[in-house]
Amino acid sequence: MGTLEYNGARPPIEVEDETLAYLKIVIGTKLRRHESFMMTWLPDEKSPAGRLTIWMHPSIPLILEFEGSKIPRIDPKRIERMMEHLSARGELVLDQMPK
Predict the structure, then answer these.
(1) Contact 21/72 with Cβ under 8 angstroms?
(2) What is the pLDDT of residue 48?
(3) 59: DSSP letter
(4) 52 three-class SS
(5) Rg (CA), the chain
(6) Rounded distance, CA 78 to CA 88, Å?
(7) Beta partners for 15?
(8) What CA–CA distance (Å, rounded) separates 43 from 49?
(9) What's the rounded Cα separation, in Å, for the pair 79 and 98?
(10) pLDDT tens across 12-37, in order?
């Protein structure tokens, strides 16, 4: 289980390493193009909050930490589906990401 830490303002978001590898590509692509977007997720059980949403922007620090050292095999079609989903909604919803 890896983590995604954004702006250091909250505890990191726990994400499975395979999913994190896909997020790295999708988020990196959008931010490299200077395209901001929203990202939404369900916090862990310890948090009293419902869904959380952040505004992803190229100037805000982002840290992706993988638990394992092995790089998973990436399916280009899944990346394409994720990018299409993000472009259509303007939002990346972690628990509703295309497989």
Answers:
(1) yes
(2) 63
(3) T
(4) strand
(5) 13
(6) 15
(7) 2
(8) 7
(9) 9
(10) 888 999 999 999 999 999 999 999 99
> Mind listing the pLDDT tens digit for each residue in 35-84?
999 999 887 666 666 788 899 999 999 999 999 899 889 999 999 999 99
Tokens of 64: 């992706």
Reduced DSSP (H G I as helix, E B as strand, rest coil) percent helix, strand, coil of the chain, to 5: 35, 25, 40
In three-state secondary structure terms, 93 is strand
- pTM for the full model? 0.88
What are the CA-CA distances from residue 99 to residues 1, 35, 75, 89, 94 (Å)? 18, 23, 9, 16, 11
What stretches of 1-75 show up as alpha helix (H) in DSSP? 17-32
